[in-house]
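Quick one:
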Amino acid sequence: MKKTLQLAFTVLAFVFILQACSTTKSLVGAQNGHINGTWTLTNVSYDGLLPNAVQDVFNQAPPRDFINSTWQLTNSGNGMYTLANGTSQTIFWSYNTQDKSNPIFQFKKIYQGDKAKNVTDGYQLNIAQNDGKFMTLKSPIRVGDKTAYIVYSFQKK
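Output:
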């Protein structure tokens, strides 16, 4: 009986440790360190779209208004972006590696009094490139039966 309880306790402890590790990995992501920090959005371009075809991104402003914005992304998932005109937005972000060939940067806008876990709307951008100094995110846009992209180029401060 004692050995059975000891074995059960050991198995449960092992499962708990594995579960704790897997939760952290899915929330933070293996390449999270490359995303943490302060970034400046240096350019917005279009792949499969005409410039100015999209009038509003992130339910905030035209894409061009995000040029020279500053994105502060902490390891905890909390963050904020500030547009060049001074408008700031608190966000909660994560790095999704569910599809290892197509990692995703995702974020939710957080308003005063909100908790990230209660916010269901958010944005997902494909991580096209990130070497820790430069990052390119691509926001997919459906155009008829094709997918076009707004391409955001960042440089780490």
